[in-house]
Amino acid sequence: MTTPVPSPKVQAFLARGPHRLFVDGKWLSGSGGLRSITDPATGLELSQVTMASPADVGTAAGAARRCFESPAWRGMPPAVRARLLWRLGELLDAHADELAEIEVFNQGKPFWLARALDAGAIGETCRYFAGWCTKLDGMVHSPSAPDPRGPGAAGPWLHMYSVREPAGVVGAIAPWNVPLVIAMAKVAGALAAGCTVILKPAEQTPLTALRLAELVEEAGFPPGSFNVVPGLGETAGAALVDSPLVDRITFTGSTDVGKLIVRAAAKDLKRVSLELGGKSPLVIFADADLARAIPAAADSIFINAGQMCFAGSRLFVAHSVRGKVLDGIAAIARDMKLGHGMDPETAMGPLISEEQRARVAGYVAQGLAAGGQLLCGGAAPAGPGNFFAPTVIAAENPLNPAAQAEIFGPVLVAATFPDQMPEQELLTRLNATPFGLAASLWTGDIARAHRLASGIQAGAVWVNCINMLDDAAPMGGFKQSGWGYEGGRAGVEEFTQLKTIAIDLT
Ligand code: ADP
User: Fold this and answer.
1) What atom of ligand 1 comes closest to residue 240's alpha carbon?
2) Pairing mode, if any, of strands 314-318 and 281-284?
3) Known catalytic membership, residue 275
4) Ligand 1 neighbour 377 (Cβ under 6 A)
5) Which sign does the torsion angle of CA 121, 127, 130, 134 carry?
């Protein structure tokens, strides 16, 4: 593999390192030490980034708090906030190629994917949420409390209404798999609601968050309204959750860390929204359009090297089409070119780290030891980078560890079901997981799709499609896949609180 050279713009950005923290509209030297940020496809250093110490996080929280309480922010008309977000959206679009390229070098995914999924989507996210700034209305109630003036008195005696207020300072903790998209859903929703934000990107992938901070500055947001503190989870992330100056935490990441955050947030009952792991079923019935279902099933698990919380990682295929479907997916997997994300022929990039690759390999070994049958892949190719071959394991036992755990790698675990299986029995199998993030159903029978969609315990059900996310639609997990919503009205209301006011008019 030849090592690609970043474009002049990206080189210029990388050369601005060692990168500092963006706090209160200024670039601060943090005290948590420097971290070498590497390209997961080559292992080569891209740049260095200062990690925030808990004290630095405290400084950022102070700045976000001051800004939140300042007239510059609290007094800003919603339409002005909307224009700031809109301008940021335009800047993100104007820099989409550069942002996508930074993401490719730092995160590993192919450029075509980063350009479409990551950098291509976030400008629209900002503009979508910009629209909400001016639409977060309260309500006027019709109370039933008896009128103390007795019957016949003129007009109402009580005026009772609720206002929707911003929740305060939001700590946003983002993961490394789709860094900018996940950060933007949180940041744009929180800013639209009138909150101020401290973003902590994952320690592995802080670069696009830092470039985002430069663009936020250029868009003209007031100092302190948006801050970026790259740092380690257990220090900077934990300090954000611990800070008395932070009102809300919005987190995307692993279920285990989500549980840690809930425990830590119990200290001051800080409210938390969580977008956690998944082990989503993808079901192919015999009447499905297989020409579409097979590539979609492959895409669902292999996109972003399987490092997607929504990945359709448990395949259920009707017995009569098993051979065709599994052969088809395995053929796609074998054809996928692994390589550097900047190579236009690359279908799949590396995993984020050697540690992640070892974790994936461990699950594959456990799955095979428990009786799973390897249909393709299963190993790391020789050479540099954290690559892992796209893998399909056939495993009928639902207790097979590879069918249970969220692997977060390009590993599909496939099981069959009898064509005539009663729907309730099938639903029991689909729902037999602690997770409840998403499900995808492939069938020509739309009535069956509706029936099953209603019985599936997941926050998103996709029929004859996969990964249908939209800024306008709320997305949240059932069961251990999360709390709260991102996207849509629910996604902005997540960052608000209602205050009910009653005025005695007598
Ligand atoms: P993964 O296991 O896939 O790396 P994590 O859930 O560990 O994902 O990471 C997601 C985000 O959570 C990252 O930004 C990480 O730094 C952060 N994080 C990890 N541990 C903690 C913690 N104890 N408190 C707060 N944030 C954390």
Assistant:
1) 25
2) parallel
3) yes
4) no
5) negative
